[in-house]
Design a protein that fits this description.
The complex is a heterodimer of chains A (278) and B (436). Chain A is mainly α and 278 residues long. The chains are: A mainly alpha (278), B mainly alpha (436). Chain A: Keywords: Cell membrane, Membrane, Transmembrane, Transmembrane helix, Transport.
Chain lengths: 278, 436
């Protein structure tokens, strides 16, 4: 009995040790950037993790030398609209594929999934020309359209989620004379809140993260998104402005990281929706 | 009386909407007629231009023309614009033709109903029918149109590019014309030594990278999930939250941070190694170590998702399985082997395959972390850590070899699509469920 207890204690100690090591590995890079953003000077190199003096200079510079506030507003605007359109499109597509049977349904699903696997920016040149002809280059509308237009190809997780909601619920409502629209908005939507949060969160963060398309579409400095702005900052004056860049990163990362951490229980629901249910 | 369907159908073949009017669906008929007129106008005015654009890709490059006494530079045809316009016109024509066919079918069906003595639907009834029986088609129409013009059109464009000579410096519009060259790009890719050796080298590393990336993420995520959920560990939610951080920080930021941390000269990682008396490693500058770094960083970024998923799945394994096995005297390892691992693999299998497909195209990681470096002198426009997708990016955006890039794009697509279709056909989400 006693040897078992000793074994349990060593097991737990090792477990905690492992957790602590992993935790350090997870936090250290973030901590390093936060510390760098407060460090005086502009160099990448430092003697210690915690700077000998703290300064808010770099944060001030960010707003004075760059249109950082404007970038932030642009990004939020694009992300919010993308989130709204994407969530509507994905949810409806997933719902229809899950709960309706119609001619060509399977072929359509397979087709959408396969098209969705095409390397995204291979389409960049064609989309660039299309946007040019629609006179949408250098506008935020163009980015919102490009981000939302592919939304229906991500239906699979949403469909899997709706598959778990029993059909009998829908049939009961239909017998009571509810239209498709009422069934969807009054019964399905309230039940699918975790999935909606998951879809909304991932599509919202998409606008903060993408720089390939945004870099192609946007050129005017006051219209840039955060990702493009920061990326350009790094490309052009990386060596000399590392600490300002670090300050920029901290300000982008904080809201997104906070959202993910607050909403983590919805993430689990969304992420496991694609798994086989035994 | 018995000939309603034939007459209605012939009228609709003749002119869209006529059959509907014959069936006394005047409102529907007028809407269709208006659509038909715009459609015909569009086809007559634009389609010949579209076909000309697609077949010739333009006939006149930039040239000098004598106007009065001086020569002026006249802009020629821009082959690539013509190609895109041609595809758009062709797709729009397909939409018109599809609607036209549907119109004929509709006239026939309604005509047959009339023969049976049923009154044709009035406009209100028609609209109601669209929102009930045709609900799926109604809902899907807008997203599908968006996909056709923003995804299918670019894909067609890219596929067609592989059969042209569109490349820098000799065939770059607007100064020069682009021509159809058939399979020449494919032949060059596999027969010209410089291209083929790059292609095989990069493909090999892409496969190694994909396997390593998928396996390391899966194993590490699984291990951390088990550790967090281990019996006796307290503050599970706290640990889980800490471990989400690498996933929650926007990727382009964490990758740029990592790039600096692994910096051989100034980066903190080498600093610490030196502090402990070890010599630093050339993390990003040596071909071998750069590959190792890429895989390590990918693991750091990717393990939280797997961990979250497996934590979610672990809670779905019935507790009584463990209790029963404990009574039978099974050890922890035996429980893992016989219960935990098989259940997780069963549920996680399809997701694993999807993440495999995702890693083949993991552009951000390679591009932001190493951008393909260290450079490889034996490769054409690629470095040692370049995977197919980043090589493709270099070819298009920095070197203007669009035709070769398209060949690679097609190759990646075929690779992933065959893999994904094979996988999806086996998963439950895709098999035909019981009809409603």
């Amino acid at each position: 009995m006693r040897s078992k207890r000793v074994r349990n204690i060593t097991k737990l100690t090792l477990g905690y040790l492992g957790l602590i090591i992993i935790a350090i590995g997870c936090i250290y890079p973030a901590l390093w950037v936060i510390m760098s953003s407060f460090r005086p000077g502009t160099a990448l190199y430092s003697n210690s993790l915690i700077p000998s003096a703290f300064t808010l200079e770099h944060y001030r510079e960010l707003f004075e030398k760059y249109p950082y506030g404007q970038w932030f507003l642009n990004t939020v605007k694009i992300s919010v609209f993308t989130m709204i359109f994407t969530t509507i499109i994905v949810t409806l597509t997933g719902y229809v594929f899950s709960k309706f049977r119609f001619y060509g349904r399977r072929q359509l699903m397979l087709g959408l999934l396969v098209i969705g696997m095409f390397p995204g920016f291979m389409s960049m040149i064609a989309i660039y020309i299309l946007l040019l002809q629609l006179k949408l280059l250098d506008t935020h509308l163009a980015l919102i359209i490009v981000y939302s237009s592919g939304a229906s190809m991500g239906f699979l997780y949403v469909k899997s989620f709706f598959d778990t909601i029993p059909n009998s619920l829908l049939e009961a409502a239909k017998i009571d004379g509810a239209s498709h629209w009422i069934v969807f908005s009054r019964i399905m939507l309230p039940l699918s809140k975790p999935m909606l949060v998951f879809v909304a969160l991932t599509s919202f963060s998409g606008g903060f993260v993408d720089f390939i398309f945004a870099n192609m579409v946007l050129s005017d400095s006051s219209k840039l998104t955060l990702a493009v702005g920061l990326f350009k900052m790094v490309k052009i004056k990386f060596a000399t402005e590392f600490t300002v860049f670090a300050a920029g990163c901290v300000l982008v990362a904080i809201p997104i990281t906070a959202l993910f951490i607050f909403l983590q229980r919805y993430l689990i629901v969304g992420l496991t929706a694609g798994a086989e249910k035994g | 009386m018995a000939q309603h369907r034939k007459l209605a159908m012939s009228l609709s073949v003749l002119c869209m909407g006529l059959g509907q009017m014959y069936n006394r669906q005047y409102f529907k008929g007028i809407v269709m007629l208006l659509f038909y007129l715009t459609g015909i106008y569009f086809i007559i005015t634009v389609l010949p231009f579209g076909m000309w654009a697609l077949t010739t890709l333009g006939e006149q490059s930039d040239h000098l023309e004598k106007v009065g006494r001086v020569y002026v530079n006249v802009r020629g045809d821009h082959s690539i614009f013509l190609l895109v316009q041609g595809i758009i016109i062709l797709l729009a024509s397909v939409v018109v033709v599809v609607l036209y066919t549907l119109n004929i079918r509709d006239a026939y069906v309604v005509g047959r109903l009339r023969e049976k003595g049923v009154h044709a639907n009035r406009i209100g009834q028609t609209l109601r029918r669209i929102t009930t029986e045709r609900f799926p088609q109604l809902v899907l129409s807008v997203p599908l149109l968006l996909v056709v013009f923003f995804t299918v059109m670019p894909i067609l464009f890219m596929i067609l590019l592989a059969f042209t000579n569109f490349s820098f410096p000799n065939f770059l519009p607007p100064a020069k014309l682009v021509d159809w060259t058939g399979f020449k790009s494919f032949q060059d890719m596999f027969n010209v030594k410089a291209w083929s050796s790059t292609f095989y080298g990069v493909t090999l590393w892409t496969l190694i990278w994909t396997v390593c990336a998928t396996v390391t993420i899966f194993v590490s995520g699984f291990a951390v999930a088990l550790l967090v959920q281990m019996q006796g560990i307290r503050f599970k939610a706290f640990w889980r939250t800490l471990f989400i951080i690498p996933y929650a920080i926007p990727q382009f930021i964490s990758l740029l941070i990592m790039k600096n941390m692994f910096n051989g000269q100034f980066g903190p990682i080498n600093q610490y190694l030196k502090y402990f008396g070890l010599s630093g490693l050339p993390w990003l500058t040596d071909p071998f170590w750069a590959k190792v770094t890429v895989i390590i960083v990918n693991m750091w970024i990717g393990f939280p998702i797997t961990m979250l998923m497996i934590i979610g799945l672990l809670s779905t394994i019935p507790k009584d399985l463990y209790e029963a096995s404990e009574i039978d005297g099974a050890s922890g390892w035996q429980q893992f082997k016989a219960i935990t691992f098989p259940s997780i693999m069963f549920a996680f299998g399809p997701l694993l395959v999807m993440s495999f497909a995702g890693n083949i195209n993991n552009f951000n990681l390679i591009y932001l972390l190493t951008n393909g470096t260290p450079a490889n002198a034996n490769y054409k426009f690629a470095g040692d850590t370049d995977i197919l997708i980043t090589w493709l990016y270099n070819l298009t955006l920095t070197n203007g070899k669009y035709n070769f890039a398209s060949v690679i794009g097609l190759f990646i697509f075929v690779l992933i699509a065959s893999f994904a279709i094979w996988n999806l056909r086996r998963t439950k989400a895709f098999k035909e469920e019981d009809g409603m």
